[in-house]
Amino acid sequence: MKQPNITMFVKELSVRISREVKVGSIHIIITTVLCLSMALFVVILAMFINDHIRNLKTEDFYFPQPNTFLPHSPSPSHSYILCNSSSSSTSHLPQNSTTIGIALAMEIWHSMSDEELMWRASMVSRIAEIPFKWTPKVAFMFLSRGPLPLAPLWERFFKGHEGFYSIYLHAPPGFTKEPPESSVFFHRRIPSKPVEWGRASMIDAERRLIGNALLDFSNERFVLLSETCIPLFNFTTIYNYLINSNHSFTDSFDDPGHVGRGRYNKRMWPTISLSEWRKGSQWFEVHRNLAIDIVSDKIYYPVFKNHCKPPCYMDEHYMATLVNKLQPERNSNRSLTWVDWSKGGSHPSKFVRKDVTQVFLDQIRHGFNCTYNGVTTSICFLFARKFHPSTLQPLLSMASS
């Protein structure tokens, strides 16, 4: 009797084991399928997120320049601004992974249209207080017809002051020559378009420079320069002069002659009246609030574009009239860039090697009187033009003094 019972027990056990193995195999297969499905889902999700982030980086956000986040240096006194001409030590940006990432991102310029650029540049933070330490910067905006022959002079001017300035270069679209990586002008060209002297395209280029510079929120002052401009003082003096000024420096005056009021077009009325019409130098310096007003202008710019054509030159009238309309009380009504119009004609005098002497430069630096923050000073010009490439060597030899 025991043998059949044992045989039945073995058979029942075999059946039960086979059933368990089958069930276990099914569980293993189901688990494997679920794991593979989850892994595939994670991979697809990661690819989607990565692609979305890449699009945001290249289209929707602007990366500030690598020298944006710096500790704020104490503001000097007025006497220091006007009298001290020695270089001071400046802070440098730490070379960490974040800095490198921002620097790499800055190498890819945006592909925005002018309209989109102006829209984004006109945005203002609704919280006035910045929630971290920062250093206000001066945006040096070069409107150039091509190469920068005086670049070595500017290289010496900027050396040692990283974090206190930004550089933007608007050159003809066909000009693609890039300076060496060690240059402060390396990868500083903005998306540009052709520029024709005296036409609306000149103002478009200026607004394009301002718009790009406004995307970096740490830029507080905006200076327009050309490839023929030189600095008349060292960086410390110019930086302090601009950052501590209560006014913008845009030449704006009422000229009753044929090259002033004589260029006014009656079709501009009533948006712009003859009494509001102004003339001035193209080379301006403005604070951030005024820069935002310039790129935001949708009222006066179309009127100028339609009705100010040669012999009416927009670069001599648009900015001068606009500033007089928008913020006359915050403008000094003078330019910081010295030019010589004594010989007459449509263009100022150009200076060559033999013209550059210490006496000549000192006359520009201290030969005038003007008002700065309500105080009379002899420092009225910080820059000068038009200097021929042949002046580079004598200027470099005198730069240290």
From TrEMBL:
InterPro entries: BC10-like, Glyco_trans_14. One of its GO terms (cellular component) is membrane. It comes from the Eukaryota. The keyword Repeat does not apply. Keywords: Glycoprotein, Glycosyltransferase, Membrane, Transferase, Transmembrane, Transmembrane helix. It holds the Pfam family Branch. It is a single-pass type II membrane protein. It is found in: Membrane. Its main location: membrane. The keyword Transferase applies. The chain crosses the membrane at residues 21-49. One of its GO terms (molecular function) is glycosyltransferase activity. PANTHER family: CORE-2/I-BRANCHING BETA-1,6-N-ACETYLGLUCOSAMINYLTRANSFERASE FAMILY PROTEIN-RELATED, CORE-2_I-BRANCHING BETA-1,6-N-ACETYLGLUCOSAMINYLTRANSFERASE FAMILY PROTEIN. This is Core-2/I-branching beta-1,6-N-acetylglucosaminyltransferase family protein. It comes from Quillaja saponaria (Soap bark tree).
